[in-house]
């Protein structure tokens, strides 16, 4: 299923293609430059075609046309083709160029890489990094295909993740750059563009405001608006709010008209309740009614985003992701420069570029979460169960035994019976708490969780009411609700996977401990309805290294609580 997850990443499943049907993301008169970031194992495809529809390997509009020999006109560029060994260009399904041994002609599944591909009058130029730089190939079609308009993003036999997708006008205005030798083009350092300067400002906003406030307040309203939309802006929303207010107070009369456009770009739902109270107490809240409205919206969203009332749709789906009969992608937050609904944009977390390792949910059982990541020593070696190596620790509310197996909770194998029962207090003859499973990442790591997956065991005691909780402190856990489920009917089969996003401010909290706590009876028809029956769990988001010197061990730091 084509979808955009909570990280604003377009996930294309095997043998599928997503089509950008919005006019702002189409080629003009058969010319244009596509810029994107991609991550995957092999075969990330960019397709230029006269009409949207079809998969990468379907070169006809329909089966009838294929039987008649009427194949669609298209160029297909494949990064990581031939088992991730080369870059390839196809014309109407026939290979016309293959490039090996050039930088970034292959994919990596561990991090996103930026690429650009330009089509101008039958000439295809490809490179990595910013558009116009690091060219690795150029091919000219002697019989150029006319009428190409639509851009498709495809996958072959594995999931491919795309983000930061943009379609620009052609870079090579006079053709001189295209005629230069590849080695020379590698050596040329382009003059910093406005976009690069804006990116630098976004990456160092707090320091720029502190060191050169006079220059910051002199920025135009249009630049400030683009700054708040820049993907590289990753500082706290309260810092962004303070910077905007500083800019506004320098010349209130001249900037007041721009505030209704700028203030909604601050992601108030990502602020904590304490930060929202600080904003509410700021004098600007009394002057601008819009600030009060945004605060109330943020408070209401954070209140419901952890409950069952929160939509199970992903943020980008709420933004208007729609797939027509030809798999057209009309609106998606993975597209750069897209005008999204402001309310949806405010709920999406900013990326931690360069500050954390991004663990993106792709599909159920994808081996992309924190348990598999740490079990593989952050990708450095083959996976070994991290509970056995003490990189992670799994605890249960009831004593560990044959049918309460901690190490199974981070494994991908289906367990027939794996239940955590109510916690009993010795000598009191009663229970001291509910049933739960917990995960301890150890002292070296914190995860800001934005997605999680549960896999049920082979029993019929399906979960119905529970809460996902997190805590930063392992010695004296202070549990915070990240997402609450009430009568959730997602799990209906033995061994089934189910996954949910974590939204709002809850998705920004770096936690060491995570817990699945039962809050209501499960679906077991027999009287024992107070157990948490799970085969495994997995968590995704932004993984922070707290103290690299302590990595590799997760010793017991607390008794079961």
UniProtKB/TrEMBL annotation:
Q: Which residues form the BACK domain?
A: 181-280
Q: Which InterPro entries does the record associate with it? A: BACK (IPR011705), Galactose-bd-like_sf (IPR008979), Methyltransf_FA (IPR022041)
Q: Taxonomically, which superkingdom?
A: Eukaryota
Q: Which Pfam families match?
A: BACK, Methyltransf_FA
Protein's name according to its UniProt entry: BACK domain-containing protein
Please name the source species.
Symbiochloris irregularis
């Amino acid at each position: 299923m084509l979808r955009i997850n909570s990280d604003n990443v377009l996930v294309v499943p095997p043998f599928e293609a997503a089509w950008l049907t919005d006019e702002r993301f189409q080629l003009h008169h058969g010319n244009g430059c596509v810029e994107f970031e991609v991550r995957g194992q092999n075969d990330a495809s960019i397709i230029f075609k006269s009409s949207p529809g079809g998969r990468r390997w379907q070169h006809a509009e329909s089966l009838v046309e294929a039987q008649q020999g009427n194949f669609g006109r298209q160029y297909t560029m494949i990064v990581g083709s031939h088992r991730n060994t080369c870059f390839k260009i196809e014309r109407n399904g026939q290979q016309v160029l293959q490039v090996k041994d050039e930088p970034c002609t292959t994919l990596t599944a561990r991090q996103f890489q930026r690429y650009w591909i330009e089509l101008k009058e039958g000439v295809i130029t490809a490179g990595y990094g910013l558009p116009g730089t690091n060219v690795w190939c150029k091919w000219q079609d002697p019989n150029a295909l006319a009428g190409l308009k639509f851009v498709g993003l495809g996958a072959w036999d594995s999931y491919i993740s795309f983000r930061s997708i943009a379609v620009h006008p052609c870079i090579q205005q006079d053709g001189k750059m295209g005629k230069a030798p590849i080695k020379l083009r590698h050596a040329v350092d382009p003059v910093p563009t406005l976009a690069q300067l804006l990116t630098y400002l976004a990456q160092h906003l707090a320091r720029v405001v502190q060191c050169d406030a006079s220059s910051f307040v002199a920025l135009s309203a249009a630049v400030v608006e683009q700054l708040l939309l820049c993907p590289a802006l990753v500082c706290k929303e309260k810092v962004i709010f303070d910077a905007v207010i500083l800019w506004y107070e320098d010349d209130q009369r001249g900037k007041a008209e721009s505030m209704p456009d700028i203030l909604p770009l601050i992601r108030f739902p990502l602020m904590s309740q304490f930060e929202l109270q600080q904003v509410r107490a700021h004098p600007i809240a009394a002057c601008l009614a819009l600030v009060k409205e945004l605060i109330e919206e943020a408070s209401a969203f954070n209140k419901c985003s952890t409950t069952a009332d929160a939509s199970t749709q992903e943020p980008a789906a709420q933004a208007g992701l729609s797939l027509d009969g030809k798999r057209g992608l009309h609106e998606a937050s993975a597209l750069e420069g897209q005008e999204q609904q402001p309310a949806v944009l405010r709920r999406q977390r900013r990326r931690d570029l360069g500050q954390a390792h991004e663990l993106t949910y792709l599909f159920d059982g994808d081996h992309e979460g924190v348990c598999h990541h740490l079990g593989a020593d952050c990708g450095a070696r083959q996976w070994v169960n991290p509970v056995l190596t003490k990189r992670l620790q799994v605890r249960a509310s009831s004593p560990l035994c044959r049918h309460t197996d901690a190490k199974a909770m981070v494994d991908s194998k289906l367990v027939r019976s794996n239940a955590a029962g109510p916690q009993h207090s010795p000598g009191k003859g009663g229970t001291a708490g509910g049933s739960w499973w917990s995960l301890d990442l150890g002292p070296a790591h914190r995860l800001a969780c934005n997605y999680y997956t549960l896999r049920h065991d082979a029993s019929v005691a399906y979960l119905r009411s529970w809460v996902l909780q997190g805590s930063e402190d392992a010695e004296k856990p202070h549990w915070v609700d990240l997402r609450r489920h009430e009568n959730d009917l997602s799990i209906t089969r033995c061994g089934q996977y189910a996954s949910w996003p974590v939204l709002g401010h809850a998705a920004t909290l770096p936690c060491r401990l995570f817990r699945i706590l039962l809050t209501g009876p499960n679906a077991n028809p027999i009287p024992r309805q107070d157990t948490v029956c799970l085969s495994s769990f997995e968590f995704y988001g932004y993984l922070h290294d707290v103290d690299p010197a302590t990595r590799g061990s997760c010793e017991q730091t607390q008794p079961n609580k």
